Structure formats: structure tokens, C-alpha cells
Amino acid sequence: MDDVRTAGRGIVAATAKIEARGVQVHYGTTHALKDVDVSILDHAVTAFIGPSGCGKSTFLRCLNRMNDTIASCRVTGKITLDGEDIYAPKVDPVQLRAKVGMVFQKPNPFPKSIYENVAYGPKIHGLTRNKGELDQIVEASLRKAALWAEVKDRLDSPGTGLSGGQQQRLCIARAIATGPEVLLMDEPCSALDPIATAQVEELIDELRSSFSVVIVTHSMQQAARVSQKTAFFHLGHLVEYGETAEIFTNPKDPRTEAYITGRIG
Ligand SMILES: Nc1ncnc2c1ncn2[C@@H]1O[C@H](COP(=O)(O)OP(=O)(O)OP(=O)(O)O)[C@@H](O)[C@H]1O
Questions:
Q1: Mutation test residue for ligand 1: of 29, 48, 54, 239, the one with most atoms within 8 Å of CB
Q2: Which residues line ligand 1 (CB under 6 A)?
């Protein structure tokens, strides 16, 4: 057990959900990640910060094997989810991605109805036996994504007709619908206006009661607002990892200090 001091929100207990040890990533001859070791906690939000090109998204994509889809990419080292090696030959990456869901920078709903966007994952993974069960999953996922009240009367309308912030919450509902344990978010607010950003940030804070959440962000203010743990990456190294408040007020490494004070970036 590990105590996590939340940003002004008391203390919650959390255990490691994902453990990475000696992770290296190459894209062809580019050495993008160098010997990354980290433990990602359950029921906490972990922020990955660092200058452009430092490897944040690359590491995020290692956590649900999205890098498998890039031909030049080679991942070595070990990453476990609840102690199980996610790169073991017996692991089906499609099943893994149902457990470790992902939300992207730009909201990307399917060109289908709001209902179908959320129902798609449970259907292809065979998670329900009948329409009643599917309806329940769709409603529960939309509720968890704080979108139900806004869309319950127009579930048959196209998902692409929603506002940007609603579309991003729909994508979060879609990720939640397959019953994940971890949610990976790659700059989920970068295409949103300040009001939609605030709504998604509030949602991220609620999601940590059910999931382990990992967020890549370029905004240090956002990392400080939403996360309990922060990992600072620089030139492919995970330079410093710790409690968010500690990283922002008392960084141990001069490179972290230079970044948070705006001297590198
Ligand atoms: N598909 C790819 N093919 C080849 N090289 C890549 C690929 N994706 C990333 N890289 C390289 O890997 C390194 C890390 O990139 P990555 O996108 O992970 O960084 P990042 O910190 O997320 O950057 P940003 O904040 O700009 O999104 C960079 O040198 C980048 O050019």
C-alpha cells in the first residue's frame, strides 16, 4: 500500500496497477524511451509531463500495446498489469485494450448514433446477452462519463453532432463501456475550450474512484489540477516521478525544476 496525497483532496490509499521495468522503445534507429521504471497506482490519476518529443505518448501507448500497430516500433523490458506481463505471447492485444482503454487528443466518435458509439465495444467483445443488458451498459457508461443527462433524449442522434466537449465525454463513455480497469488519455483536452476542459477535468477526478487514470498533458496547470502522481520525461528518460504537489513545489532533479519554471520546454 502506498499513500497518495491528493491535491487538496485528502489522502487516498492506492496499490500499483501497472508496473514498468527497464522499458526501452525504438522506432527504427530512434531510441525514444530509455530504461523506464515506474509503478502506476490504482484509483489515482497519474500525469505524464515533459517537453515535446520526450516520449510521453510513446510510453502511454506501451501500456495498452498501441505501439504494436507501428511497424518500426520495438518495445523491450517488462510491463505488468496486476502482475501479469502484458507482452506475454498468450495476451491478445484486443482484449488488453478493452481492459486498458484509451482516449485520444481529438474527440473521434464513430459516424454512428450516440447509443451505437457506446454499444459498439460491448457488442464486439460479447459482453451482453440481450438488448436490456446492452441498454444498461450504455446508460451506466454515459452516466459515468457525466453525459447521460445531456443525451438521454437523443440517443439515436449522431455522435458527431455533439459539441467538442460532449464528443470527448462520449469517447470516454465508449472507453468505459468495455469495463476497463485503466484509462489512458493522450492530451484529452487539447482540442477543447476552457469550459469543456473544466468539465472533462472534473470528470477525470471522478473517474479515479473506479479506474487507474493516466493522462498525457502539455499543461502543467492541468497536471497540478487533476493528478495525484506526476512523471516528468525528458529526452526519453523518466527523470522524476512522485507526488504531484512535491514535483511542482520541490522537484529533486534540476531538469524537472528547469521544466516547471519554464526554462526548458
Ligand atoms: N510513429 C513514429 N515513428 C517514428 N518515430 C516516432 C513515432 N512516434 C514518435 N516517434 C519519435 O519518438 C520520440 C518520442 O515521441 P512522442 O510522440 O512519444 O513524444 P511526446 O513527448 O509525446 O511528444 P509531444 O508532446 O510532442 O506529443 C520522438 O523523437 C518522436 O519523433
A1: 54
A2: 27, 30, 32, 50, 52-58, 70, 72
Mutate to test the pocket of ligand 1, among 25, 27, 74, 214 (most ligand atoms within 8 A of CB): 27
**Which residues span the domain enclosing 86?**
16-261
Residue 2 located in a structural domain:
no
CATH code assigned at 231: 3.40.50.300
Confidence at residue 90, expressed as pLDDT on a 0 to 100 scale? 96
- Residue 65 covered by a domain: yes
Taking CA atoms only, the protein residue closest to ligand 1 atom 26 is 52
pLDDT at position 12: 52
Question: How many domains is the chain partitioned into structurally?
Answer: 1
Among 13, 16, 109, 110, smallest CA distance to 63 is for: 16
Q: Give the nearest ligand 1 atom to 28 CA.
A: 4
Residue 3 lies in a domain: no
pLDDT higher than threshold 50 for residue 10:
no
ipTM, interface predicted TM-score of the complex: 0.98
Which tens digits make up the pLDDT trace of 29-59? 999 999 999 999 999 999 999 999 999 999 9
pTM (predicted TM-score):
0.92
DSSP H helical ranges for 92-243 = 93-99, 114-124, 131-144, 148-151, 164-176, 194-207, 220-226
Q: Please give the DSSP secondary-structure letter assigned to residue 68.
A: G
Type of residue found at 106: K
> Considering the domain boundaries, does residue 52 fall inside one?
yes
